[in-house]
Amino acid sequence: MSMEQPGFFKDRVLPIITVILAILAIWHVFVVVLNAPFERDQAARAGTPITFMEILPRTFVQERPVLPAPQQIVVELWDTTIDKAITSKRSLVYHTWITLSATLLGFAIGTVLGILLAIGIVHNKAMDRSLMPWVIASQTIPILAVAPMIIVVLNSIGISGLLPKALISTYLSFFPIVVGMVKGLRSPEQIYLDLMHTYNASSAQTFWKLRWPASMPYLFTSLKVAIAISLVGAIVGELPTGAVAGLGARLLSGSYYGQTVQIWAALFMAAGLAAVLVTIVGIAHASVLKRMGVRP
Amino acid sequence: MMGYLIGAILFWILAWAFNEWLVRQKFRSFAANRAARIAVPVLFGVTILVLWEGVVRGFNIPSILLPAPSMIWARLIHSVPTLWADFQQTFLKSVITGYLFGCGLGFLVAIAIDRSPFLQKGLLPIGNFVSALPIVGVAPIMVMWFGFDWQSKVAVVVIMTFFPMLVNTVQGLASTSAMERDLMRTYAASWWQTLTKLRLPAAGPFIFNALKINSTLALIGAIVAEFFGTPIVGMGFRISTEVGRSNVDMVWAEIAVAAVAGSAFYGVVALAERAVTFWHPSVRGGQA
Fold first, then answer.
1. Is residue B67 part of a domain?
2. How far apart, in whole angstroms, are the C-alpha atoms of residue B241 and residue B98?
3. Contacts of A20 in chain B (CB under 8 A)
4. Residue B69 covered by a domain
5. CB-CB contact of A52 with A39 (8 Å)
6. Which residue ranges does the record assign to the ABC transmembrane type-1 domain (chain B) (predicted)?
7. What is the DSSP string of A128-189?
């Protein structure tokens, strides 16, 4: 282990840190370049000459910058998460929770539906032949375009709040799971299926003792894609409701009122949330495979 | 009114039974087998439409909730000029431009960092991470920077398509085996020759995988970016305003256009893949 550490640092951590630092450096340059015209404009209006050295520090503290400095975003994140009560509508934690709950509900429904459909497809030839081409074709359709309509239509029949957004997440997360699970349930080789046959196993026994365990790696790979896309669905689902609550609403209201720092803070929060969710699925993946005795 | 419903359900049961019968058949000729393979999903699609029409008419569902397919079709035929203008704005201007720029840029950056393992190790995990993020969220920022017209949508599409292309190309370029690379060395091939004659062709399946993923992402990015502000034309704009005016049949017509455009785009990329990577086992085996 002690032999591995320096290599791990040099091979994995160092390159990533270098690239991140490079991105931050480029970011700072762009902050100056993009925000300077506003300061020059202000100075020209006031009729006072302004030097570049005077402009430089001001570009990092503008209230509505074209590109906010990273530290402004961090301050905004701190203000809206730590300094505000969680129940406050100005707290980013509150909005994140709204989006997260829709994401998780949609993801759960999508996973259950996807697995059930995959089981049907694997066990019934007619379902396989008639459904599978449509499942694949549906992935080529920009289904997010339907989001506003689902929200408004469900609203008009009295379903509002969490469920419509969750349904969009369901719709998006459902396809990767069907495709992955069909592949996974079919992954046992003929020789194992024949073995189950010689044991006189029923099709339920074959399913629980062979197909289901064999499909786990495929399931978790799909789950990672599905949870990321569920989050996208929930965020986009919040756009047409007219900016009430949630990360998508923060994006929309930020863009209405030109609050760029708010947009970026919401964006970073969404990115962090996606990272946490994918990591949790990844940990679940590793622990399930470990319990099943799979060696990496 | 109930007649429609009963008719639709009868059609459903008959079509299901016919499909069950069809998948059990083994025809003598190759062509008949192929036709049967295509007929099953087509029949399923038709059944969905018939059932949809029957349920809408049978239960008298108001068209504001769910218009019947026949109504959507009528609307589609009547508003071809509007739909065409939206299609031009969103698909031809935003999607295609952004897709070409994003994929091209991802490809070029992947080639550029090919000689630096250090940069690859730094960029790959970040690229993979960014691919999982809700990038659509940059749409409001891009609209602020590049204005309401199609340029801002191009920017969103470029950002969305860049990372999948970068990650896949880098992986594809690394996919040749040491033996093949050694062979090129024994031929005294330069880096450039090895790239064009061995590594790029070997990366083909990976690159086309990214192109396929991106074809869907590009359309989603352009449509969602239009929710944040557009001139008065475009598919995303039309969808959000017609929803507001409760013209649900127009929304469905627009979705139908988006679906056909998305599938056709994907289909073209898939055909190009078959033509270019004809040597790959997945193509030779006759499975996509």
1. no
2. 24
3. 126
4. no
5. no
6. 104-276
7. HHHHHHHHHHHTTS-GGGGHHHHHHHHHHTT--THHHHHHHHHHHHHHHHHHHHHHHHT-S-
Could you tell me if B209 and B279 lie in one domain? yes
Cβ separation B125–A16 shorter than 8 A: yes
Of A141, A149, A156, the CB nearest to B251: A149
The whole-chain average pLDDT of chain A stands at 82
Using CB atoms and an 8 Å cut-off, which of residues 53-92 of chain B contact chain A? 64-66
**Does residue B165 fall inside a structural domain?**
yes
The answer, for A203 touching chain B at a CB cutoff of 8 Å, is no
CB proximity B270 to A under 8 Å: no
CA distance B215 to A142: 10
Any A CB within 8 A of B229 CB: yes
At A1 the pLDDT is 42
d(CA A85, CA A83): 7
Encode burial over B23-40: b for 16+ CB neighbours within 10 A, e otherwise. beeeeeeeeeeeebeeeb
What confidence tens digit (pLDDT) does each residue in A232-282 have? 888 888 876 655 778 888 888 887 787 888 888 888 888 888 889 988 998
Closest of B157, B280, B256, B274 to residue B214, by C-alpha: B157
Average pLDDT over residues B178-202: 88
Residue type, A168: I
Range of the domain at B50: 2-61
Contact A279, B125 (CB under 8 A): no
Spell out the residues 6+ positions from residue B1 whose beta carbon is closer than 8 angstroms to its own.
B57, B58, B60
CB nearest B121 (choices: A12, A153, A240): A12
Residue A238 to residues A156, A245, A256, B121: CA-CA distances in angstroms?
16, 8, 15, 36
Q: Give the span between the Cα atoms of A33 and A36, in whole angstroms.
A: 6
Among residues B83, B90, B251, B45, the alpha carbon closest in space to that of A136 is found at B45
Task: Please report, as a single letter, which amino acid is at residue A150.
Answer: I
Query: A7 in contact with B at a CB cutoff of 8 Å?
Result: no
**How would you class A136 by CB atoms within 10 Å of its CB: exposed for 0-12, middle for 13-18, buried for 19 or more?**
middle
Which of A28-32, A52-56, A232-236, B77-81 is predicted with the least confidence, judged by mean pLDDT? A52-56
| pLDDT at residue A3, as a whole number | 47
Half-sphere exposure of A251 (CA within 13 A, CB side): 34
**Of residues A11, A140, A254, nearest to B266 (C-beta):** A140
ipTM: 0.76
Whether residue B66 is contained in a domain is answered as no
Question: Which CATH number characterizes residue B137's domain?
Answer: 1.10.3720.10
